[in-house]
Amino acid sequence: MSVISPHYRTIKDLLQSRSFAIDEYQREYKWERKNLQDLLNDLLGKFSADHRPEHETKEVANYGEYFLGSIIVSQRGGRSYLVDGQQRVTSLTLFLIYLYRAAEAKKLNVTKTMAPLIYSDDMGETRFNLDIPERLGLIEALYKGQSFSTVDKDESVQTMYARYQDIEASELVEDLGEGLPHFIYWLLTKVGLIEIATSNDDYANVIFESMNDRGKPLSPADMLKAYLLAPITDPAERAKVNQAWKSQVLALISWNQEPDAERDAEFMKAWLRAQHAESIRERKPGATDKDWELIGNVFHRWTRDNHKYLGLGKAEANRRFITERFAFFAKVWLQVQDACRQYTPGLEAIYYNAHNDLTLQSTVLLAPLMETDDAETVRRKLGVTATYLDIWLMRRVVNYVRTGYSSIYYTMAVLCRDIRRKPLAELVTILQDKLADDDVSFSAYEAKNRKGLRDFGLNQHSKRFVFHLLARVTAATEAGAGRKDNFAILVDRRGSNPFDIEHIWANDYGMHSAVFADEKEFEILRDNAAALLLLPQDVNRSLQDQPYDYKRNVYGQQNFYAASLSDAVYAHQPQFKAYRESIAQPFEPYANFTKGEHAKRAELLLGLVERIWSPQRLQAAAALD
Q1: 3-state class of 289 per DSSP?
Q2: Contact partners, residue 210, CB within 8 Å, separation at least 6
Q3: DSSP-derived secondary structure letter, 215
Q4: Is 215 a residue whose pLDDT tops 50?
Q5: DSSP secondary-structure letter at 101?
Q6: What 8-state DSSP symbol labels residue 287?
Q7: Which pLDDT value is given to residue 129?
């Protein structure tokens, strides 16, 4: 007789010296960046509510718990098969590897506890807890800190690699600081789930179907709808308003032919935070959740508890909330999602911010809007606000200031409050003043002794931002000199020949030793943004370790920013000449590329960057005289 056994497992209990497999018919690993970001934010928020810097690690035992739901496991042939829970177990594994590598770098004792949760010794052979053959290569490479190529790999491997990069970009370890070991012990011992195990596949599938198809609990959006419809007692009116709600929800969850049952909740959190969150949890240990956090966790309950502030509770008010306010903001939110995916004239800054993974953009953009705004006013407000975010973000990027969710959410919450429901002209003034008062610039961040763009270059965490900056500079130069703005093409990694970062100096210190004080100086300047270009992958690879005098001839056939290093573009490109003269920036060809030429190129790059990210763009986005 088959037995069904539910057990509560902490992460440590679940993964200790154990491995999981999946059947071939199981779907691919599908988690998107927002799924992972939500999990990390929830975990960090729950941990931070109890943690204090003075705590010893043993005090973690008194911290609150976090529940991850349930998984279904079928036991057969001595192995554990995940019937339901692959997405969470895979994501947890990636997160544990990230934390393990951070702990190992800091030589923390907790690594001894973590290692058996990632892999175990099976009769002398290493077996990872995710024992899925096609994914083992990636898991092993991540665990050992080795490079890995996803070329020609299956969808799950590519998605896993992308999510691991998202975890690295989250800057969670930096945010935790000295609290890293406390967080790890808390994660292993105070975060858990229910494991429902059976030795019969049929039973496992029946349980899965029962949990997902029958008796499914109401979602927060469902509960919000029930609350809002309750005062509307006229059957015909109630049916009409209910249909309006359903139509909006359907438009949200089916957007872009990519159904997502959680997208309605994602929108409602963004909308309510942008338009109505007045308070946010203080940035100190033990602080309690306020509007911002409560909307993120229980927006349906927050709406009910704050019905007077929202003007809700009566039939007519609730009707208008659904048919006018909900409808207006849902439509704009979907407009923002479209602009995140597709390079849209007038809304380019939204695409830029999406490429830079500014996760709170969709919330902030809703803040200055009013239901009475016409379509053109909406577009301009979106353009102005997104442009501000673009400038604000890139100023911090070049100064190595963290811009992950946990580092900026407080600032973004305050920004929402400051620009909420402002007329267009006033919105521009507020955001211009903020940029003028900003102590972070492209030249420096003196409070942190950062030197801005002059010191900005490639490292483990900055590569995607360096790529973005080079793409913006390249695209702006192309467009200014009469060609098409090709930013969307430059950053598209899906083609067979995407653009890659090109080092002007070949990776050969011996070739350049006479120019530099030592090899360290060579490596730093070689990776500096002013010594980098974007070229098609095949061209980039063909150059490899060629000397500069060879490369510059090839550069002359590429985009204008690269070609500006060679002579030909100055003689045969009248539109480039006109652009160069109109912006008065020091473009010039170099027969050699030494430290002196690099310094000149750095001045050119700074001038272009200051122009591309000029605060004057706010006025242009608003189309105000």
Answers
A1: coil
A2: none
A3: S
A4: no
A5: H
A6: P
A7: 80
Average pLDDT, the chain: 90
In terms of Cβ atoms closer than 10 Å to its own Cβ (0-12, 13-18, 19+), residue 415 is buried
User: For residues 159 and 27, is the Cβ–Cβ distance under 8 A?
Assistant: no
Q: What share of the chain is helix, strand, coil (3-state, %, to 5)?
A: 60, 10, 30
Distance (Å, whole) CA 332 – CA 340:
12
Contact indicator for 69, 14 with CB cutoff of 8 Å: no
C-alpha separations of 370 from 85, 365, 389 in Å: 42, 12, 20
pLDDT at 174 over 90: no
Q: How far is the C-alpha of 407 from the C-alpha of 401, rounded, in Å?
A: 9
Q: How far apart are CA 33 and CA 41, in angstroms?
A: 12
Token digits of residue 545: 């370790």
Q: Which token pair is 306? A: 């704050």
Q: Which two tokens stand for residue 575?
A: 């539109």
Quick one: CA torsion of 178, 181, 185, 191, rounded to 10 degrees?
A: 60
Helix (H, G, I), strand (E, B) or coil at 603: helix
Q: Write the CB contacts of 625 (distance below 8 Å, at least 6 apart in sequence).
A: none
Q: pLDDT band for position 217 (50/70/90)?
A: low
How confident is the model over 11-30, as pLDDT tens digits?
Answer: 999 888 777 887 766 667 88
Q: What is the pLDDT of residues 480-530, one digit of tens each?
A: 999 999 999 999 988 899 999 999 999 999 988 888 999 999 999 999 999
Q: How far apart are CA 575 and CA 464, in angstroms?
A: 31
Instruction: Let me know how many helices (H) and strands (E) the chain has, helices first.
Output: 32, 9
Tokens linked to 64 = 């609150």
pLDDT at 212 over 80: no
The pLDDT, as a whole number, for residue 1 is: 41
- Could you tell me if 66 and 190 are in contact, meaning their C-beta atoms sit under 8 angstroms apart? yes
Tell me the three state secondary structure of residue 193.
strand
> 214: pLDDT confidence band, cut at 50, 70 and 90?
very low
d(CA 384, CA 622): 6
3-class DSSP state of 260: coil
Q: Which two tokens stand for residue 6?
A: 């539910």
* DSSP letter, residue 505: S
Dihedral sign computed on CA atoms, order 164, 167, 169, 173: negative
For the chain, percent of residues with pLDDT exceeding 90:
66
Contact by Cβ (8 Å): 559, 480: no
Torsions phi, psi for 501 (to 5 deg): -75, 130
Beta bridge partners of 122: 125
Burial of 437 (0-12, 13-18, 19+ CB in 10 A): exposed
Is the pLDDT at 83 greater than 90, yes or no?
no
Task: Name which of 530, 525, 524 is nearest 470 in CA terms.
Answer: 530
- With both helix axes pointing from N to C terminus, report the angle between 155-169 and 86-105 in degrees, rounded to the nearest 10: 50
Cα–Cα distance, 417 to 534 (Å, whole number): 39
pLDDT digits (tens, 9 = 90+) for 142-168: 988 888 888 878 888 889 999 998 898
* pTM of structure: 0.85
CA–CA separation, 179 vs 45, rounded Å?
A: 13
Q: Are 135 and 156 in contact (CB under 8 A)?
A: yes
Residue 566 has pLDDT above 50, yes or no: yes
Q: Retrieve residue 590's tokens.
A: 């170099």
Map residue 197 onto helix, strand or coil: strand
